[in-house]
Amino acid sequence: KAWQNQGKGHELLRSALRAVLKDRCKLAIHEEPSKARVWELVVKKGGPRLKASDPNSVPPDGAKRPSGAVWVGEEENGRQVENFYRSGMQDLADFLSIITRGRPPVRDKTGLTGRYDFTFRQVALVPGDDRVYSYPVGHLGLQIKAGFENRPILVIDHIEKPTPN
Predict the structure, then answer these.
(1) Which long-range contacts (CB under 8 A, 24 or more apart) does 156-164 make?
(2) Tens digits of per-residue pLDDT, 22-43?
(3) Low-confidence residues in the chain, pLDDT < 70
């Protein structure tokens, strides 16, 4: 059961993999503190402009998220339109992280805990713009800004060819 219900970090899998690498490859590692770049999803001055989800409504069929949110994508005039139903801000941060391919990841810093219905329309990017801006959030009273977070990095001190099976 624990293997099936791991968090996003897959803690059990990581622990098992490290144990195997230590045993078979004589892996020795340590962590060092580091700062990493992130995008922060924040509320704009003036406050959020989000429509609260009706808990009694039935969202259309779409990509169901573990949080209970539903994402429905469609194309309009050659551009993607993403409709979110019963979505929290973490769902939005996850979507934007998918858009950026997690480099850097998007962190929810809004402090908003409700469930909302909203729509995004993809826009053309100016060369040099980051992919995170391809779905503007300003119409929701939100903004994306650059930030940093403390995140440890793994340093490999020693590794050998694996022992035979």
Answers:
(1) 156/27, 156/28, 156/29, 157/28, 157/29, 157/30, 158/26, 158/27, 158/28, 159/21, 159/25, 159/26, 159/27, 159/28, 160/25, 160/26, 161/25, 162/24, 162/25, 163/24, 163/25
(2) 999 999 999 999 999 999 999 9
(3) 3, 7-9
Cα torsion through 132, 134, 137, 142, rounded to 10: 30
Q: Which two tokens stand for residue 119?
A: 């729509």
**For position 146, what pLDDT does the model report?**
93
- Report phi then psi at 99, rounded to 5: -60, -40
pLDDT of residue 9: 67
